Amino acid sequence: MPMPFVKAERLQKLPPYLFAEIDKKKKAALAAGRDVINLGVGDPDRPTPSAIIRSLQHHVENPAFHQYALDQGSPELRQSIASFCKARYGIDLDPNSEILPLIGSKEGIAHFPLAVLNPGEISLAPDPCYPVYRSSSLFTGADVYTMPLEPSLGFRPDLEAIPNDVFTRARLMFLNYPNNPTGGTVDLPFFQEVVDLARAHNLVIAQDAAYNEIYFDRPAPSLLQIEGARDVSIEFHSLSKTFNMTGWRVGFAIGGAPLIAALGQVKANTDSGIFTAIQFAAKTALDQYATLTPPIRALYKERRDAFLAGMRRIGWEVPTPEATFYVWIPCPKNYPSTELCSRLLDEADVVTTPGLGFGRTADGYIRAAMTVETPRLIEAVERIGKLAL
Ligand SMILES: Cc1ncc(COP(=O)(O)O)c(C=O)c1O
Fold first, then answer.
1. Does the structure show a pLDDT above 90 at 70?
2. 157, 234, 253, 314: which one has the fewest Cβ atoms less than 10 Å from its Cβ?
């Protein structure tokens, strides 16, 4: 009789997957042929713009690209990333040492703690948050300290509330603005505060800018716009949401040369780069950012406005997010988030995501993703409006 498999302790340390219940119900509803409106997934529904697809079709024919890619990314893509960052954020980056293409930003985020944290050190992670910050930190043997995102501070953490003894062990702080799931945004003075804090406490800041290009009125800033920020920080960017390219797996990190080199060292021992044809298609995307991304932003704004107007018409109080394609909805009547999501699915065939899945401070909210067409959003609102909550 073989011994039963016991998975590694690092996997046992991960928090329970709280979306499992809603996933199960969603699958059952779909299998039963119900007309489900899925506002649960943060995955753009529209296709990748055709200029990017044509670029891939062209470059995939090049036999040189069928071999292993360069670990540090192709020089042409790194140059395009530098030009994009200069045009969009006014920052000058050395394409050889301060830029690293990634197999999606998630890959870089998941690997970065291995480059920074030692066992027993502390990683600071927001609550609620994209779950990878916590899991990748725990994988290194570090502890995670939770920074609640305060609704009264516009979903920023209260940096002054972090105890000094935490700072003595802390090496890494994750931030994510524009924020998933809350839609919260920040400005340059907040980033300045964060950089000052990092300097004072010898911290590295990892800012996840996956939604930086999905803003509505004010362009989202880059942490690297703060003078000297790159000495203490790295910022993760993604082409996934900016160009409807989630399945392509391409993003990039920018930051100080030693931090980029350390992440590069982890990657060199882990993966073998991004398919070069995809890197050249990513270059096309970034080179055409000024024409390709504004219509994507405009679409999410139209959807957001239609959804919010509808929800307010049926009596729900929902704040207006300034960025991302998420709407962070306070649960009416103090419903726990998992119970509210279950009722919306069972009784209205509308899938949303419970706040609790993103962190224990977020049980009073559910998240709706504006990743279906406007008429479906309006229908979702009509169905929700018929519920007696
Ligand atoms: C906050 C946040 N960061 C990073 C990612 C990962 O994006 P990518 O497709 O670039 O790996 C996501 C994806 O949903 C996200 O929500």
1. no
2. 314
